[in-house]
Amino acid sequence: MRILGLHATGHDSGAALLAGDELVAIGEERLSRVKNDGAFPARAIAHVLGGAPLASVDLVVCDVSDGETARARTALAAAGYAGEVLLVEHHLAHAASAHFVAPDDGAAILVVDAGGTRVAEWPADRPRPASFPGGAADQELQSFYLARGRRLERLHGTWSRPGLRLGIGWLYALVTLHLGFGPLDAGKTMGLAAHAPSGPADDVWPWLTPGGDLLFRSDVDVARPATAARWLAELTGVPARLGGEPLDERHAAVAAKLQRTTEAFMLALARQLHAATNAETLCLAGGVALNVLANRRLADESPFRRVAVQPAATDTGIALGCALAGAVARGVPIPPCPEVSCLARPPSAAAHDAAAARAEAEGFLVERPADLLGQVVARLAAGQIVGWVEGASELGPRALGHRSLLADARDPAAKERVNARVKHREAFRPFAPVVLEERAGELFDLALPSANMLFAARVHEAARARVPAVTHADGTARVQTVSRTFPGRLRTLLERFAAETGVPALLNTSLNGPGEPIAETPDDALALFVGSQMDALVLGDWLVARQPRPSRPAAP
301 and 316 share a domain? Predict the structure, then answer.
């Protein structure tokens, strides 16, 4: 059976195909080159189908949100699909994607985002929960699920309602806007929080718990910008920051309080869910699940023995969740979850060859070296910035060694150099380390694997001088660990870099410029190389460079 999952509404649209043992997924933004693209995912559908017609699909599964279901149906019909369309609620799709990464049966699943399906949009053929509210505009904010065999049992959902309308995802988005960032820029707020002085752990914004629900009081209509700005100014103690205005310690203090509140809130939710399930494993999805500091606290302090996070936890993973929810509904087997969720179709060798030929025609040095990794190690150790394109791309917002930008973590100036030459992002935002899994303990306080860069760790004080480029202002790092079974050559590159320098880690950030999605194709990567000051670019087996290989590694 061929099941096509779609997220065709709101932001971060995408498609996923489950066909036997094959599972392919990609976000529309990677192909349209529009960041957080919410257009109907025609390009993503074509990509996952791999040239097959839409009529070859047996079932299409869409999530319901933003009142755009009719648009998706119309577009599908126009593209030649006349088959069944199964509608599922937004949080169920998130939960199904989280179940995919569960290491065992009987896992509890927590979904937390800015908001899911509204009452007026609830699918007619889906059972209505006992707590279903009456207001058509009420929206699900956080949900509890339990994975039982092949079924997902919805245990509880918290709904917005007048006077008690905010969950932590919505509050995080509102405060992020208040701080002058975009509505999907929660990562910037989390990065800014590290620059505030440490505050008391209990210095949080209070929430109310009527009927056991965790929500924040908001007696005003926060959907109205002017009203929300006044309410947020009162809540935070600072006026709204307009774009271009400088950030100061007041903004960092607000971000830090929001971060503490988020961590405490998520712990409270986890304790509720554990009390209801007594499960050993907690799985997370929804945008809040990308908060690596909260995830680490859940791993350390919640009653659960294990915490697993869907790497495409935002709406980028909804299409995958829809395909998996359709498989559960139809009794179709689901293939095992890969170690790293690289689910797109990889570029062909011909695509790499063509991009390399274009680079050579533009006057760059292009070669296919016998010892590619040796060349890359030499360049990194000499302080160069190297783009890295290999195999299928990662699903989700984080590059994990298939569409990465790499630099020497030992070099104190590497962060500023990457920012100035390629990324051009705010100076307060950190860069992440990628490290050999078995040697992570040399540098980081991290007892669990973190293959998808979803947990924060403290950098050992004695190790901070070894990896200054990836140590954040608060002494933490968002760590990616690379196991011996990692699918690709990044593992070997780290081993050879460690043998050359003694440090088993590199700076790893996403291969994109400011305001762009992560590069998908070799052509995307080459365009970034040409338009930036990146030193070298690996395209499969090709090396594109601006200058010859350094004669020998330079000390940082």
Answer: no
pLDDT in tens, 477-536: 999 999 999 999 999 999 999 999 999 999 999 999 999 999 999 999 999 999 999 999
State the Cα–Cα distance between residues 240 and 175, nearest whole angstrom: 9
- Asked if residue 129 belongs to a domain, the reply is no
Is the full-model pTM beyond 0.90? yes
Domain at 188, CATH number: 3.30.420.40
- pLDDT exceeds cutoff 90 at 251: yes
- State the DSSP string of 234-277: HHHSSPPPPTTPPP-HHHHHHHHHHHHHHHHHHHHHHHHHHHHH
* pLDDT, tens digit, 9 for 90 and up, residues 19-62: 999 999 999 999 999 999 999 999 999 999 999 999 999 999 99
Integer-rounded Cα radius of gyration of the chain: 23
Domain residue limits at 390:
349-545
The CA distances from residue 173 to 46, 188, 227, 298, 544, in Å, are 32, 11, 15, 21, 40
Instruction: Centre a 10 Å sphere on the Cβ of residue 404 and count the other Cβ atoms it contains.
Output: 26
Is 496 in the same domain as 370? yes
Distance CA 63, CA 256 (A): 34
Domain count of the fold of the chain: 3
Kindly report the length of the chain: 556
| Ordered strands of the 386-389 beta sheet | 365-367, 542-545, 536-539, 386-389, 403-407, 505-510, 432-436, 476-482, 455-459, 444-445
Residues 214 and 175 placed together within one structural domain of the fold? yes
Tell me if residue 169 falls in helix, strand or coil: helix
- In Å, how far from its chain's centre is CA 29? 14
Dihedral of CA atoms 237, 242, 243, 248 in degrees, nearest 10, equals -40
User: What is the rounded CA–CA span in Å between residue 514 and residue 76?
Assistant: 33
Give the tokens for residue 14.
Answer: 């995408």
Tell me: do 219 and 288 sit in the same domain: yes
Kindly state whether residues 357 and 321 are assigned to the same domain.
Answer: no
Within this chain, do residues 325 and 442 fall inside the same structural domain, yes or no? Answer: no
Q: Are residues 289 and 328 in the same domain?
A: no
Please tell me whether residues 319 and 428 are part of one structural domain: no
For 55, which DSSP code? Answer: G
531: CATH: 3.90.870.20
* CA distance linking residue 504 with residue 491, whole number of Å: 10
Q: Within a domain: residue 554?
A: no
Report yes or no on 290 lying in a domain: yes
**Measured distance CA(92)–CA(322) in Å, rounded:** 8
> Would 116 be classed as within a structural domain?
no
